[in-house]
Design goal:
By secondary structure, this protein is an alpha/beta fold. It is built from 33 helices and 34 strands. The strands form eleven sheets. It has a seven-stranded mixed β-barrel. A five-stranded parallel beta sheet has the order 6-5-4-9-10, sandwiched between helices. Strand 12, helix 8 and strand 13 (284-288) form a beta-alpha-beta unit.
Length: 916
C-alpha cells in the first residue's frame, strides 16, 4: 500500500495485542477539512480514497473534493472506488467465471500470460439461485430438490469447482447452504477488513460489490456495498477501481417504534413506496435520528436489502451497539468484534444519535405510523395497506381483464397487422372466472379468479429476519391447533436463507406446525423469488390454461415483476412471511383478511386473522429461547466444504478450461473473437432498424428472464435440437454460461409487449428485412439483420432496465446486434452494463419520448456525432435522424472511464488490453 499519502493520514490503531496501520480521517479534520459533518457512507468512500491514493486514479484533489463535499451539488465529479471484496451468486457468478476463463484464453492468443487473469481481491460465490421447487409439502422435499438440482446442474458445478482450483482468491459456498445475502450478512461480512502486506497489518472498512442487486443488505451492518452487473464485478475482481460519481445523500430520519402487530416487512414496503416516490436513483440513503437505535439489526438488513426496489445505490445504517450485539450473536470472534468497535470509534464511524450530518435531501418517518401492508401485483413499490387489499385486488383484476379482452385484442391488430401474422398460441382463449377441479386424491373443488396458487416463504429480504420467520411459524402453530390448513390448490414452500433458520425452528419445536400446513423445507436458496417456483399443482395448471384464469402468487420476497414468478401467474404480491401463511389458508386474494372469516375450525366456528396472529411479546419470547450464538458458529464452520455430493464432483485441474463442445450449460463465449491488440475507432450508427419499441418500467426480467424456459420459444427449440427434453430445460438463470441459450432468451419474457408487434405478448417483433415486415421472434429477426449487416436500436420509456442487475440483459442485447438504446430514463446498473458491453445508452430530450416525437419504430435510424469519442471527448448529445424526424439525444456516458470502456468495445476488452 505504498502511495503518496499527501495528507499524512497513515496512523496506528492497537486493539488488544495487535497493531494495525490505518488511514485516519482525523488527519483531514486537523488540516481544516470538516469531515466530521460528512454522512457515514461518504466517510467510508473518503477513507477508500485516502488509502488508495496513487496520483493517477486517485489524487489529492479527489480526496480534497470529497472532504469538501457540497450536499447541494448535482453528481458530476468522478472518483475511483476500490472495494475490499466481491460477492457473486451462481446465476451471475457462472458467466463471470466463464468470462474469466475466456479472458485467459484470449490473453494466451494475444501473446500474454493467462495467469494474469486472476481475482486480485477476495471473491466469494454462493450457489443459491439454482434450486427449483419441483417437490413440495412433504418431509423429503428438501432432499429431492437438491438431488434434482445436482442432476440438472452438474456441468455448472464442475465448472465452478474448476474455477475454485484454477483461480486464486476465489471461494465457493456449495449448494444447499443458504442465500448469498444472508450468508454475507451472517458470516462473510467483516465490517472492518484486515490485510497483511509486506509484513504490515492494515485495517480498513469492509466494502464490497456484488453481482446481485440486493447486495446492500449488508448496509444494515454498516458495510458500504452495492449491486453491480457481472461485467463491472469482473473488472473489480481484476483490480480495476469502480468509477462512480460522488452521489447526493438523502438523510432519512427515523423516530418512534413499530406498533403491535406490525412487521419489518410492513416497514420496508412503506420505505420502498416513500423513497421510490421521492426519487433516489443513483443516490445514497442514510438513516439517522433517535429511532435508529430502536431498529434491530435484522430490520436494518431488511431495509438495506430493498435498495434496488426503491432505486438507491445504498441504504446505510451506521455502526453502533446493535451492530456489536449482532456480530456477537452471529458467532464472529471476540477479536473481530473488538476491532470493529475500536476502529469505528477511532474513525468517527460510531453512531451518535445527537449528531446530524449534512445531507442533500431529507425525509422523515415515524415508525409508529406503519400499518400492515402488501405490495403488488407487479411492482414492489406499489404498496397496498392490508385493509385495502381486497378492493385494490378487484380493481387490478378488472383492469387486467379489460386489457386482455378480445375486443381490445382485435382493435390492436386492426391498427397494422392481419391476424394471420400473430403467432397462434398468443390468441386469446375463452375466459372463465371459475372452474371445477378434481385433485389426484379425488377431492373436488372450485378454482376461481384470484385464487392463491403459490404461497412461498422465500427470499433474502425476510428469511434473515428472525422476527418475521418466527411470526410465520407461530401463525402456522395457532392455525394448526384450530384445525386449519392450506387450500388444496395452493403450492406452499419454505426456502430459508440459511440453515440457522431451520435450526431455530427445530429448537423452538415449530417445524411440525409449518409442515402440517405444507410449508415444508424445499431448499436453502432464492427459489420462488427468482422465478424458480417450479410447476404448479398439475390439475390447477390445467384449469388455468383451459379457462384463461387470473391467479395469484404470494411471497415474502422483493421482486414481483410480470412473468417472473411463474408464467401462468399474472398477479404477484409481496408480503411478510406470516401473511403468506394466512393467504395460503384463505386461498384467495379476494378477501378482507382483517375483517372476513379466514376459515372455520373443526367445530365449525369462524376463525379470524386476529385469532392466529402472534403478539410481539410471543415472537420475542421464542427468539430469546431458541436463537443462540453457537447456532451460527456451527452453521458456518465448514461453509465452503459442502456435502458429500459436492466433494465427490470430478474436478479438472488446468490453467485454462477445456470447453466441451457438447455442453448446453457452459460454452466458450464469442466476446473476444477477432479482437485486436488495439481498439478499432468508434463509428457513427447508419441505416439502423428498431428491434423493439417498449414502454415504461421495462425490467431486466423483461429483457433477460431468469425463470422457466417456455416450450416453442427459440431457446427451447435450441435445447430440443441438442437432445434436451422439456423436463430438463431448467431455467434461463441456470443456463447463463451458454450464450446460445441466452441470446435466444433475450427479450423473451412471456409478458413483454413490443409495440412493433401489437396484439402479441412475448419475444416478437417485425422483421423489416422481409417483404411486408412480418411478425417473427426477436431472435430470428436479429439473425436476418446481422446477416444483412443492419445495426439495431431499442426504443424505450422510463426506468429502462430496473430490477435485478442482470448482466445478460446487456450481453444479450449486444449479441442480438443492438448498437444503441434510446430510453426516457435508465436504472443505474443496466445503463452501466450496456456501456460495459459496448452498447451506447442514449436518452430522449427532456420531456420527450417516442410518442411525443411521433416515432412508430418502422423508420430507418442514423445516429451521428458518436465519433467525437475518438478524440477524447464525451459528446453531450448526438444527432438522431429517424425517417423525417430528427432530434438531439442525450449521451449517457457519465464518466471518462465509461468512455474508455465504450471506445474499447466493452469493459472486458479494456481490462484485457490493460493487462497486456
Amino acid at each position: 500500500m505504498s502511495h503518496p499519502n499527501s495528507f499524512k493520514a497513515r496512523g496506528e490503531l492497537t486493539v488488544g495485542s495487535q497493531s494495525y496501520q490505518i488511514f485516519q480521517l482525523s488527519a483531514l479534520q486537523d488540516q481544516g477539512l470538516d469531515v466530521h459533518r460528512l454522512p457515514y457512507g461518504l466517510k467510508i468512500l473518503l477513507e477508500n480514497l485516502l488509502r488508495t491514493e496513487d496520483g493517477v486514479n486517485v489524487t489529492a484533489d479527489h480526496i480534497r473534493f470529497l472532504a469538501n463535499w457540497d450536499p447541494s451539488a448535482q453528481p458530476d465529479y468522478e472518483i475511483a472506488f476500490s472495494p475490499a471484496r466481491v460477492v457473486l451468486q451462481d446465476f451471475t457468478g457462472v458467466p463471470a467465471v466463464v468470462d474469466l476463463a475466456a479472458m485467459r484464453e484470449a490473453m494466451a492468443q494475444l501473446g500474454g500470460d493467462p495467469k494474469r487473469i486472476n481475482p486480485l481481491v477476495p471473491v466469494e460465490l454462493v450457489i443459491d439461485h439454482s434450486v427449483i421447487v419441483d417437490d413440495f409439502a412433504h418431509n423429503q422435499s428438501f432432499q429431492r430438490n437438491v438431488e434434482i438440482e445436482y442432476q440438472r446442474n452438474v456441468e455448472r458445478y464442475q465448472f465452478l469447482r474448476w474455477g475454485q482450483e484454477a483461480f486464486d482468491n476465489f471461494k465457493v459456498v456449495p449448494p444447499g447452504t443458504g442465500i448469498v445475502h444472508q450468508v454475507n450478512l451472517e458470516h462473510l461480512s467483516r465490517v472492518v477488513f484486515t490485510k497483511e502486506e509486506n509484513g504490515t497489518a492494515y485495517a480498513y472498512p469492509d466494502t464490497c460489490v456484488g453481482t446481485d442487486s440486493h447486495t446492500p443488505m449488508v448496509n444494515g451492518l454498516g458495510v458500504v456495498a452495492w449491486g453491480v452487473g457481472g461485467i463491472e464485478a469482473e473488472a473489480a475482481m481484476l483490480g480495476q477501481p469502480i468509477s462512480m460519481l460522488v452521489p447526493r445523500v438523502v438523510g432519512f430520519k427515523l423516530t418512534g417504534s413499530l406498533p403491535e402487530g406490525v412487521t419489518a416487512t410492513d416497514l420496508v414496503l412503506t420505505i420502498t413506496e416513500m423513497l421510490r416516490k421521492h426519487g433516489v436513483v443513483g443516490k445514497f440513503v442514510e438513516f439517522y435520528g433517535p429511532g435508529v437505535s430502536a431498529v434491530p439489526l435484522a430490520n436494518r438488513a431488511t431495509i438495506g436489502n430493498m435498495s434496488p426496489e426503491y432505486g438507491s445505490t445504498v441504504s446505510m445504517f451506521p455502526i453502533d451497539e446493535e451492530t456489536i450485539h449482532y456480530l456477537r450473536l452471529t458467532g464472529r470472534s471476540e477479536a473481530q468484534i473488538a476491532l470493529v468497535e475500536a476502529y469505528a470509534k477511532a474513525q468517527g464511524l460510531w453512531h451518535d444519535p445527537d449528531h446530524e450530518p449534512v445531507y442533500s435531501e431529507h425525509l422523515e418517518l415515524d415508525l409508529a405510523s406503519i400499518v400492515p401492508s402488501i405490495a403488488g401485483p407487479k411492482r414492489p413499490q406499489d404498496r397496498v395497506p392490508l385493509s385495502s387489499a381486497q378492493p385494490a385486488f378487484r380493481k387490478e383484476l378488472a383492469q387486467l381483464e379489460k386489457q386482455q379482452s378480445a375486443a381490445d385484442y382485435d382493435e390492436a391488430l386492426k391498427e397494422s397487422f392481419p391476424a394471420s401474422d400473430v403467432p397462434a398460441h398468443d390468441q386469446p382463449k375463452k375466459k372463465n372466472t371459475e372452474a371445477l377441479v378434481q385433485s389426484e386424491d379425488g377431492q373436488t373443488y372450485t378454482l376461481k379468479d384470484g385464487a392463491v396458487v403459490i404461497a412461498a416463504i422465500t427470499s433474502c429480504t425476510n428469511t434473515s429476519n428472525p422476527s418475521v420467520m418466527i411470526a410465520a411459524a407461530l401463525v402456522a402453530k395457532k392455525a394448526h391447533e384450530k384445525g386449519l390448513t392450506r387450500k388444496p390448490w395452493v403450492k406452499t414452500s419454505l426456502a430459508p436463507g440459511s440453515r440457522v433458520v431451520t435450526d431455530y425452528y427445530e429448537r423452538a419445536g415449530l417445524t411440525p406446525y409449518l409442515d402440517a400446513l405444507g410449508f415444508n423445507l424445499v431448499g436453502y436458496g432464492c427459489t420462488t423469488c427468482i422465478g424458480n417456483s417450479g410447476p404448479l399443482i398439475p390439475e390447477v395448471a390445467a384449469a388455468i390454461d383451459a379457462n384463461d384464469m387470473t391467479v395469484v402468487s404470494v411471497l415474502s420476497g422483493n421482486r414481483n415483476f410480470e412473468g417472473r414468478i411463474h408464467p401462468q401467474v399474472k398477479m404477484n404480491y409481496l408480503m411478510s412471511p406470516p401473511l403468506v401463511v394466512a393467504y395460503a389458508i384463505a386461498g384467495t386474494m379476494d378477501i378482507d383478511l382483517q375483517n372476513d372469516v379466514l376459515a372455520t375450525d373443526a367445530q365449525g366456528n369462524p376463525v379470524y386473522l386476529k385469532d392466529i396472529w402472534p403478539t410481539t411479546e410471543e415472537v420475542q419470547a421464542v427468539i430469546e429461547q431458541a436463537i443462540t450464538e453457537d447456532m451460527y458458529r456451527r452453521g458456518y464452520q465448514d461453509v465452503f466444504a459442502g456435502d458429500e455430493r459436492w466433494q465427490q464432483l470430478p474436478t479438472p485441474e488446468s490453467e485454462q478450461f477445456h470447453w466441451d463442445p457438447q455442453s448446453t450449460y457452459v460454452r466458450h463465449p464469442p466476446y473476444f473473437e477477432q479482437m485486436r491488440a488495439q481498439p478499432e475507432p468508434v463509428a457513427d450508427i447508419e441505416n439502423a432498424r428498431v428491434l423493439a419499441k417498449l414502454g415504461d418500467s421495462v425490467t431486466t426480467d423483461h429483457i433477460s428472464p431468469a425463470g422457466a424456459i417456455v416450450p416453442m420459444t427459440p431457446a427451447a427449440m435450441y435445447l430440443t435440437e441438442h437432445g434436451i427434453e422439456p423436463k430438463d430445460f431448467n431455467s434461463y438463470g441456470s443456463r447463463r454460461g451458454n450464450h446460445e441459450v441466452m441470446i435466444r432468451g433475450t427479450f423473451a419474457n412471456v409478458r413483454l409487449r413490443n409495440q412493433l408487434a401489437p396484439g402479441t405478448e412475448g419475444g416478437y417483433t417485425r422483421d423489416f428485412t422481409q417483404e411486408g415486415a412480418p411478425i417473427t421472434t426477436i431472435y430470428d429477426a436479429s439473425r436476418h439483420y446481422l446477416a444483412q449487416q443492419v445495426p439495431l436500436v431499442i426504443l424505450a420509456g422510463k426506468e429502462y432496465g430496473s430490477g435485478s442487475s442482470r448482466d445478460w440483459a446487456a450481453k444479450g442485447t449486444m449479441l442480438l446486434g443492438v448498437k444503441a438504446v434510446i430510453a426516457e430514463s435508465y436504472e443505474r446498473i443496466h445503463r452501466s452494463n450496456l456501456l460495459g458491453m459496448g452498447v451506447l445508452p442514449l436518452q430522449f430530450p427532456e420531456g420527450q419520448n417516442a410518442q411525443t416525437l411521433g416515432l412508430l419504430g418502422d423508420e430507418v435510424f442514423s445516429i451521428t456525432g458518436v465519433t467525437a469519442l475518438n478524440h477524447g471527448q464525451i459528446p453531450k448529445t448526438v444527432q438522431v435522424k429517424a425517417g423525417d424526424i430528427s432530434f438531439e439525444a442525450i449521451v449517457r456516458i457519465d464518466t471518462p472511464s465509461e468512455a474508455e470502456y465504450f471506445r474499447h468495445g466493452g469493459i472486458m476488452q479494456y481490462v484485457l488490453r490493460s493487462l497486456m
